[in-house]
Amino acid sequence: MTLTAPENSKALTLRGRPMSAPLHDVDMLSDQLVAHYASVLPAYSDYQMTRIQGLLRAATMRGLEMSIKLLDAGLPPTEEDLQGIRALAAGEAKEGTPLDAVLSVANEALTMVQDLIVADADTDDFADVQEGARRFFAMAQMLHTAISTSYAEALRPGTAGADGAATHSLVHTLLTGNNPDLVAQQLGVELAPEYLVLRVALNLQPGGPGSGKLSALEVRRKLDLLRTAFVDRCGSPFLSSLTHRGGAILLPGTPAWDWVADMLRAVGEAAGVEITAAAENSRRQDIPATTERVDELLRLARRLGRAPGLYGLGDLAVEYQLTRPGPARADLVRLLDPLESSPELLQTLTIHIRNDLNRQRTASMLHLHTNTVDYRMKRIAQLTGLDPTRPSGLRQLQAAIVAREFTRAGTPAQS
């Protein structure tokens, strides 16, 4: 691609100062922008971009330098300017980071820089602001082209790491409803007409933090163990897009539910990871809509404190329905109003129900005597008129707790 300077190459100004003035402290601003990415971009944490923080900072510095040249002299990025950004995009392709996640960082940087330079503009600066916007639009197109082409080139067959990255790309394409044929052809994968869509949540430290938070290297090793265990049991190519938090798995056909549940349990044990998953069968063209429902089921299972394992709509049908907004849900929530002034009773009831009314387990979790658990159940019955030790009262209280949890969340499916 040949880059040429725009016809209008004059230095742009705001209030008599160079428009580029707010960008001149490149070191400080680069640090601020990288911190900003970490705080506002879901992709930053989802794909552990702290591992490339140094590369991001270097690319951000080069981006600021390009912006200064663009504003002061109308000079567009050169191929040398774009080398670091191209390398970063190619590296993330091989890591399996989706292209839109990489582009989201570039877009956020461009937005923040433009907001910064025009913050003090007034009506007299309109012409220069307009010209600045035009120059930034042209640069954004160049950046998008550089990132996208470098990303695609890294996925070409025969490129080191391309198969794993292409697998992530194929899964992302299927989940978003875009045409997966080209990526499938690159991988040599024959797409199935149906898939079991799984969304999984991972706990990489089942026993708690213990000696401290896992390092990036330890997280990578855990994920490698996990992927190896999945491939051993499911075969290759294994269609997944997994980060340290979880992600998506697509199993072709309609595998038996018990086999999938046993497989997840065995894989988790092999890798030392707790896996909570929700799943639903889907035709290939319906995967995006199915994914939304399965996401909601997974959030529901986690919000309700369900144990690790595999869940489908049949396992959570009552709870799922109770989370739908409406007058019935509001009535259920009001059943717990008498307990609002006694949070310890509400906490005990919630945990006791999650423990299937096991007194010893509830007492142990709350550091109470079992007699105290019994007393609190009696007190709940007195205050609400519903006895949690009887089936009729238990059903209503359990439904009320589920409804209350999601009413407080504000939406049926928030986590």
Automatic annotation (TrEMBL):
What is the name of the protein in this document?
Answer: Helix-turn-helix domain-containing protein
Q: Which Gene3D superfamilies does UniProt cross-reference here?
A: PucR C-terminal helix-turn-helix domain (1.10.10.2840)
| Classification via PANTHER family | CARBOHYDRATE DIACID REGULATOR (PTHR33744), PUCR FAMILY TRANSCRIPTIONAL REGULATOR (PTHR33744:SF7)
Domain RsbT co-antagonist protein RsbRD N-terminal spans what residues? 29-155
Indicate the segments forming the PucR C-terminal helix-turn-helix domain, all copies: 345-401
Entry-linked InterPro entries: CdaR-like_regulators, PucR_C-HTH_dom, PucR_C-HTH_sf, RsbRD_N_dom
